[in-house]
Amino acid sequence: MNRRKKKPQQVDYIQLAKEKVSAIDWSHIKHEAKSRWLQLPKLHQRALYILVPVVLLLVLIPFPDTTKEADSVEPIESQRVSVAVNTESLSEQGEPKTQPLQSEQWKEYQVKSGDTLARVFRANNLAMADLKALVNVEGKDKPLSQIKVGQQVRFKVKEDGNLDILQLKDASKSVMFYRNSSGSFTKSK
C-alpha cells in the first residue's frame, strides 16, 4: 500500500498571460475603437481629452485623511473668567491725576567759571564722540564753543547712554541739537 501523493503541477502564469495577449487581434480592436471614437461629437471628444486625465490624477493623488483629525479634536469646555470692570461714574472718579514730567529724562547743568563744554561732557559721563559730532554742526554763531558762566546746559540721554538732545539756554536765546536716525546731529533754534 504505497500511496504517493502526486505533486500539483506548477503553472507558469506569466507564460500563460503572454500566450493570451499574443492571441488577441489588436488591429481589429484598434480599428473598432477608432470607429467608435469618430462617432462621438467633437465637443464630447474634447471633453474626454480633458476629463480623463483629470479623473486619473484625482484617483492617483493621495488626500489626507480628515476623519482622524476631526476625531482627535477635544471639545472645549466653557470656563468663567472674572473681569475687573470700573463701575464708578465719571463724576465719582474725579479728575485724572497727571504725572509731572519726569526730570530723570532731562539733566541740567549750570555753567561755572572756567567750564568748557568738554568738562561738562566729562562731568556728566557723556561721550566725547557726541561732542565732536555736535561741533561739526555748530554753525557760524559758535554756541557750543562760546558757553558763558550761568548758562544752562540741558541734555537728554537715551537708555543706551548716548546723547539724544542737547539744549543751551541763556536769558536771550536757546539753541537745541537733536540726534537724527542716522546718528548725526541737527541744530535748531
From TrEMBL:
The chain crosses the membrane at residues 46-63. CDD domains: LysM. PROSITE patterns: LYSM. Keywords: Membrane, Transmembrane, Transmembrane helix. Gene3D superfamilies: 3.10.450.350. One of its GO terms (molecular function) is peptidoglycan binding. It comes from the Bacteria. The keyword Transmembrane helix applies. Residues 107-155 form the LysM domain. The keyword Secreted does not apply. Pfam families: LysM_OapA, OapA_N. This is LysM peptidoglycan-binding domain-containing protein.
